[in-house]
Write a structure and sequence with these properties.
Largest sheet: 5 strands, parallel
CATH superfamily of the largest domain: Enolase-like C-terminal domain
Bound molecules: magnesium ion
Number of domains: 3
Strand content: 5-15%
Structural class: alpha/beta
Distance between the termini: 54 Å
Length: 403
């Protein structure tokens, strides 16, 4: 059997193995005819000569900028976020072995090839967030080859502009670690935050609250009851992911919509929330979910449950633009997070902007429609990499808390 497979592989028809088998045993000519006549034999995408030739992963600050090069001179960029940058860069360089010489336009195939490459690492944050950077670069290359912005490849824009926050009329407040349940004074001071936010944006604006997984359920239920008058759009990360029963309990007691999924990586991480009715909004992150490819699938899953995405985003303008392309193309969308100050000035050149009402314009151009200033990147890469190991999750008694 092994020899037969190897022989078929040498003919370049390994992907059409099942088909080729039907001709096997009837002679070489019969096999050649079967392969030529069956479209499945083209799975190898022999209609194109473009190949991935090089991957460069450059750690900068707390991010990794990833560049893919091809034999046709077209290049693509992606961003890896929220990992130890040196580790992520090394992993990306190692994963290059899986895509070296491959056609970069086979995005889904390459995503699967990397994601399913190691059964014991698949779905984990280190693997999936590294894959996100590669995925963004593949979409960038493909858009450039097709001569269209990435959102065109995703089915075209479903909206003219994309609502962003924070803006003067859309704001999010939040909290750090809290005790098991709150005293009246503790609850009151946190409610004041929400009340002040509502005053700032007025009756037409949006207020969101980020619980950062840092409020134990009894405290969150007390608090959520107290902020009802201020019409909060959603409470983000109401609990630490892991036990759906906790989310079901919160859902029973809290009438404000719950946003989940910041730490979700794949469709399998969000399906439980949707199935149990525990997610009103999916605040998934393009840089966490293995890039545009998986974010779009999660959005489709949410659509089936009438649950929109509200993408979490703490990347530079490169990752934010990748997320914007996806947000522009999916039908069920609420609002997008974005912090311009995360991008070092001049490093990423984008051509979209946010208007006075807080809406981002659609990117114009080809691929991701943004450019990385490479000399500037190399200059910034000389600075020491300082991984972020937050120590903010501490209680007054010195014990560790979620945050
Ligand atoms: Mg959050």
């Amino acid at each position: 059997m092994t020899n037969r497979r190897e022989w078929l592989g040498s003919l370049g028809v390994a992907a059409a193995g099942g088909l080729a088998m039907t001709g096997f045993g009837t002679g070489m000519n019969a096999l050649a005819v079967d392969v030529a006549n069956n479209p499945a034999a083209n799975v190898g995408d022999r209609t194109s000569t473009i190949k991935i030739t090089k991957l460069t992963a450059t750690p900068v600050m707390r991010k990794v900028f990833l560049k893919l090069e091809t034999n046709h001179g077209v290049t693509g960029w992606g961003e890896i976020d929220q990992l130890e940058p040196n580790v992520a860069a090394m992993l990306a360089r190692s994963l290059f072995e899986l895509i070296d010489g491959e056609n970069p336009t086979r995005i889904e195939h390459l995503w699967q090839k990397i994601y399913r490459s190691h059964r014991d690492m698949r779905g984990g944050p280190v693997m999936t967030q590294t894959l996100a950077g590669i995925d963004m670069a593949l979409w960038d290359i493909t858009g450039k080859l097709w001569g269209v912005p990435v959102y065109r490849l995703l089915g075209g824009p479903t909206r003219n502009k994309v609502r962003f926050y924070p803006t003067p009329n859309a704001t999010k407040v939040g909290c750090g670690p809290q005790p098991f349940s709150g005293t009246p004074q503790q609850i009151e001071s946190m409610v004041k935050q929400v009340e002040d936010a509502r005053k700032r944006v007025g009756p037409t604006g949006i207020v969101m609250f980020d619980a950062h997984c840092a409020m134990p359920p009894p405290f969150l239920i007390q608090f959520a009851t107290a902020i009802k008058p201020y019409d909060v759009l959603y409470i983000e990360e109401p609990a630490v992911p892991g036990n759906m029963e906790v989310f079901k309990r919160l859902k029973q007691h809290i009438s404000i919509p719950l946003a989940v999924g910041e730490q979700a990586r794949t469709i399998w991480d969000v399906i439980g929330y949707l199935h149990e009715g525990c997610a009103d909004i999916l605040q998934v992150d393009c840089a966490h979910t293995g890039g545009i490819t998986q974010l779009r699938k999660i959005a489709t899953l949410g659509e089936a449950y009438h649950v929109p995405i509200a993408p979490h985003c703490v990347t530079t303008d490169l990752g934010a633009t990748a997320s914007l392309h996806c947000s522009a193309a999916v039908p069920f969308f609420l609002i997008h997070e974005y912090y311009p100050s995360i991008s070092p000035p001049g490093l990423v050149k984008k051509n979209w902007s946010i208007d006075k009402d807080g809406y981002a314009s659609l990117p114009e151009g080809v691929g991701l429609c943004c450019e990385v200033d490479e000399p500037k990147l190399l200059e910034l890469a000389k600075q020491p990499i300082v991984p972020e190991w937050p120590t903010r999750g501490r209680m007054p008694d010195g014990s560790i808390a979620d945050y």
